[in-house]
Design a protein that fits this description.
- It is a single chain.
- This protein is mostly helical.
- It is globular.
- The relative contact order is 0.18.
- It contains 18 helices and 2 strands.
- Strands 1-2 form a two-stranded antiparallel sheet.
- Helices cover about 75% and strands about 0% of the residues.
Length: about 425
């Protein structure tokens, strides 16, 4: 006899002060803080490149490393959080993030930039970004609140982008890029007290036949099951495109706009528009995924992105067209995250959610690495980002097709599986 995957019940040991509302608010604040600075690092490309005579490929490599190591570190951080609880992972992640921003502030050579902006911030993000916040929401909140919470957590990251983009530009213009990075680093320390609200209990292993099979799975069994599941593999492959497009646009769009005569201030508002409209997109998708098939939502998002990029690069770039592109892009920016994370929880339950979503995120960040790195290399070789824009369009269409065959149902498991 087979049963569907079980859900890990919210811990009954939660403190009285940790109500669902408090958990959601503090988790959203962490998502806002962690996503804000890294989405604004593209504005440091030109001032740092001018000061140290670097090409854009130097900065591109550092942020490409950040995306790659964030992805590679995510399943490791997720596995530790699943096994020992999220709190300690969040604290270490916040400290690494702050340290990376400070090292970036004192970087005078490409190697130190790679270490600070690339290695430390990359691994720091894997420990304190919205990915683990979504995992905490899945574990601590009842099922009926998860859809909204996943959308809210993603939207909060977008609001961080909306706030930090113009804030970062203003700091750079008025106080210099070094002071801006120092302030960003100090703000990351606020994640530590906020993480107390979303702390999850350590995992316990039980062989009782009354415990759902999902809660008894070992790490190796969970991975083997996931990567042997066709729908999970398709989901992971489609997520590659999301990372490629988002990372390329985040890092290179400000410079692309500047090359076409759009001011840095306008570039800041374009990135802010992406963040603002992403709030609408993420919350809307968080609500829609409870009413419509998630695979169709994902397919529509990827196809809409491809169309918006094609329209953007096919017409002259003006202040108006740039802001419109930011708004349209924002609607589909991180709105892939709620249905992707919800599909992982639906297929496999929440016992190893942070781990399995972490591996999906590896694909996302490998795409991010290639988007950022190729953007810098292609520009230095050809003096244009056009080939990368068209590659983004192609990937968008492919991902729209890849997500259509996904089966939205829990995997079948025996009543009990030994750990």
């Amino acid at each position: 006899m087979a049963v569907t995957s079980g859900e890990l019940r919210p811990s009954s040991g939660l403190g009285a002060w940790r109500t669902p509302l408090v958990i959601i608010i503090c988790g959203c604040a962490i998502a806002l803080l962690s996503f804000g600075p890294r989405s604004s690092l593209g504005f440091f490309v030109q001032p740092m490149s001018r000061e140290f005579a670097w090409g854009r490929d130097v900065f591109g490599l550092a942020l490409a490393l950040q995306n790659l190591l964030w992805g590679l570190g995510q399943p490791i951080a997720g596995a530790i959080a699943d096994r020992f609880g999220i709190l300690r992972v969040m604290i270490v992640g916040a400290l690494l993030y702050a340290g990376g921003l400070l090292l970036m502030r004192y970087s005078t050579a490409p190697l130190s930039l790679d270490l600070g902006a690339g290695v430390l911030i990359g691994f720091g993000l894997s420990g304190c970004s919205f990915n683990l916040v979504l995992s905490a929401f899945s574990k601590l909140l009842p099922p009926e609140r998860r859809g909204f919470a996943l959308g809210a957590g993603t939207a909060a990251g977008s609001f961080g982008q909306f706030l930090f983009a113009p804030f970062g530009v203003a700091m750079i213009d008025n106080f210099g890029w070094q002071s801006a990075l120092t302030v960003f680093a100090l703000l990351m320390l606020l994640i530590i007290p906020l993480s107390l609200a979303i702390a999850t209990p350590p995992a316990t292993t039980s062989s009782s036949s009354n415990v759902p099979a999902a809660d008894q799975q070992s790490f190796k069994t969970a991975l083997a099951e996931a990567f042997g599941h066709r729908s999970y593999v398709l989901l992971v492959l489609g997520f590659f495109t999301c990372g490629f497009q988002l990372a390329f646009i985040t890092v290179h769009l400000p410079a692309y706009l500047a090359d076409r005569g759009v001011s840095a201030q306008t570039g800041g508002w374009v990135v802010a528009a992406i963040g603002l409209f992403n709030i609408i997109g993420s919350l809307s998708v968080g609500w829609l995924q409870n009413k419509y098939p998630k695979r169709y939502i994902l397919s529509l998002i990827y196809f809409a992105r491809a169309l918006s990029i094609m329209a953007f690069i096919s017409f002259p770039i003006t202040t108006f067209s740039a802001i419109v592109f930011g708004a349209v892009t924002g609607l589909t920016w991180l709105s892939t995250v709620p249905p992707t994370s919800a599909l992982v929880a639906l297929m496999f339950g929440t016992r190893w959610f942070a781990t399995l979503y972490g591996f999906a995120f590896v694909s996302h960040q490998v795409g991010g690495f290639l988007g950022v790195w190729l953007g810098g290399v292609v520009f230095e070789q050809f003096g244009s980002y056009t080939p990368i824009w068209w590659l983004s369009i192609m990937f968008g269409v492919l991902s729209a097709l890849i997500n259509l065959p996904i089966v939205e149902q829990p995997v079948a498991r025996p009543v009990a599986q030994p750990a």
